[in-house]
Amino acid sequence: MKFPVSKFQKNLEKQLIESSTGKVREVFQYLIDNEELNHLQEYANIVSINRLGYNDHGPVHARVVAKNAFTLMKLLENKVPTSLQNEHLGSFEDSTIVLLISAFCHDLGMTMGRHDHERNSIIIGSNCIEEILNRFYTDNYYVMILKAMVFETIIGHMGEFDVSSIEAGVLLVSDGCDMTKGRARIPYAMQTKPTIGDIHKYSAMSINQVHIEPGDDKLPIKITVDMDDKAGIFQIEQVLYPKVIKSSIKKYIQIIARLKDGTELPYQ
Distance between CA atoms of 185 and 201, rounded to whole angstroms? Predict the structure, then answer.
């Protein structure tokens, strides 16, 4: 079975490959080319959009989250050590690879539905995650450690499970940052009558872009949310901000809502 790949997805994949080097680039390429992951992501999207009326949880969302995580990690590099680095268990590169695998697998549980999809992502993706790690690491015991960290990162991405690692905190924020109108456009277009939860779609349609940029020495990560109108504030306060608050990297982040007229509303 073959699914169509949009130009946006292809461009996103090109950006991911061109922005990385070494083993990280190899992992990116392997994740992008992995047919099992691609099919699971596509089916997760079918369940999410067609069956449940939610927004994108498929291959594009996975790649956007991976890109966000990679960007956040570059901003933290040499400023905030990862948990693997702090505990003398691995390198910054290893932590980045954990995040990339987690980003590509974190919503596989949507193939079974929304409820407990974080835990179901671990169940469905377990064999695939282990296979990917074994491809790039030869130490079986180290693979077990990295697999456990991938599991923590996946199960914590909704903010319902208290994460402790820097890596898991990065994915929380990366997932929360994917809230633009592009992610909501399909369910928005398909809707023919009002339903409970419409505020999520309408507020997402107000978000033009989320910028993840360098901050200052105290707060090295600056997240600016460009929106057409104040309806987009709902997305910040109900989607992004709660995930940042639950994240282990919250003390390094500043959030700014930027309205169409240029007015900036900082969140502390």
Answer: 8
For 5-41, the pLDDT digits (tens) are 889 999 999 999 999 999 999 999 999 999 999 999 9
Q: Identify the helix (H) or strand (E) that includes residue 267.
A: strand 264-267
Residue 138 sits in the same domain as residue 191: no
Count of domains for the chain: 2
State pLDDT tens for residues 59-103.
999 999 999 999 999 999 999 999 999 999 999 999 999 999 999
162 and 198 assigned to the same domain: no
* DSSP symbols for 167-184: HHHHHHHHHHT--SHHHH
The encoded tokens of residue 126 equal: 């377990």
Phi, psi of 209 (to 5 degrees): -160, 150
Q: What is the mean pLDDT of the chain?
A: 90
Both 127 and 202 in one domain: the answer is: no
∠ CA(38), CA(154), CA(180), 5° rounding? Answer: 70
* Single-letter code of the amino acid located at 41: Q
Question: What residue spans of 110-222 are helical by DSSP H?
Answer: 117-136, 140-155, 166-176, 181-190, 198-204
* pLDDT tens per residue, range 213-243: 999 999 999 999 999 888 888 889 988 999 9
- DSSP single-letter state for residue 20: -
Rounded CA-CA distance 268/193 in Å is 37
DSSP 237: I
* pTM to 2 decimal places: 0.91
Token readout for 201 is 């779609």
Structure tokens at 2: 């073959």
Residue 189: partners with Cβ closer than 8 Å, 6 or more residues away: none
Crossing angle for the helix pair 166-176 and 140-155, to the nearest 10 degrees: 40
**Bridge partner list, 255:** 223, 267
